[in-house]
Amino acid sequence: MQTPILSYIKLSISRAREGHLPLYRQLGEMLYLQLRFRIGPGFYHRARFWRREMPFRQKTRYRLGQPYLDALASINHPRYETLSQNKVCEKAMLTLFGIPTAPFMGCFHPLWGRSCDGQPLTSSAQLWALLQRKQQQAVAFKRPVGARGIGFDLIDIGSGEDQEIFSRALQRSLPLDEYLQLKGEEYGDQGIHIEALIQQHPAMAALNPSSVNTLRLWVRQTERDIQVRSGVLKVGSRTSLADFNLEKAGGLYAPIDLATGTLREVHVRPGPPEERVDPAVLDGFVIPFWPRAVQLAKECLAVFPETRLVGMDIAIAPDGPLIVELNNQPDPIHAANVDIPTLDLIGSQSPTSALGRPQRQG
Fold first, then answer.
1. DSSP characters for 37-99?
2. What is the pTM for the complete model shown?
3. pLDDT tens sequence across 302-343
4. pLDDT digits over 96-133, tens only?
5. Among 222, 230, 265, 359, which is least packed, fewest CB within 10 Å?
6. Does the 70-98+200-346 domain belong in CATH 3.30.470.20?
């Protein structure tokens, strides 16, 4: 079996043969970045640090692991972490301030579950009664604390007395009691966050109908203003329900031109052929309601106390953008995806790209 380090060396050899940095330079940079900043060879290749035109000083401005978390802690107060890490707390904040988001239906838990109208939601019978309000529509089930689409499911509601639902994640029908038992094993003691399905703008849905395709924006509040620092469009793989799925690679992502809402270079996540989405679907694509999405992102961050930077997922509905979720510890791989060093995204000054180009602010 080929070891990871050997595979990275082979990748470096291939890049050198293509005319990028010579092998000895790549290996030397990898060693320095690993020892000095804990940046490993995987991120080195993901961020395409082997490009000749990328200044080495820019590579030293990326952060991962604890150094990255320390940088975030300097601007996001730890006492408010839960507000954007727990979906129930987050939904409460969004709803309280009138920020557009998918309607909250309730949180199921056998001890403390409660619906949005204040009724107990602790038994399958109570949950079934709640779901009956959404017949002919799908309902989203999520982990209250989770990320990257793990545990996400869409449920189609039946109308019979047998209380059967259809799980799109499992691709089968089963009794609600059995489903709750499975979710209890999967989610642990978190309960189940339940909300209405997001209806996508037709242009967004056409990119890949099975998934909710979203914008991931990094939004930064400084002493002077609130800025959208960077953004990518995320498209799920063919059978994925979410825009990102660790188990189903093959989707697309593309950095967004912040001034126009158009896309830059399109990237395909490696995956089996049956899961891949044709990148041609993004040719000439312009994000619907882009100016409104930028404005919504700024308004959303403003209502979260002592939070200065978040990664924000935004869906585009037929009548405009809405917030899917926030993360005040967003995945640092985003910096590689948008080609902007992490410290530039986090810092108080407007960022530049890894190639030294100023980023026009949204």
1. H---HHHHHHTTTT-TTS-HHHHTT---HHHHHHHHHTTS-GGGHHHHHSHHHHHHHHHHTT-
2. 0.89
3. 999 999 999 999 999 999 999 999 999 999 999 999 999 999
4. 999 999 999 999 999 999 999 999 999 999 999 999 88
5. 265
6. yes
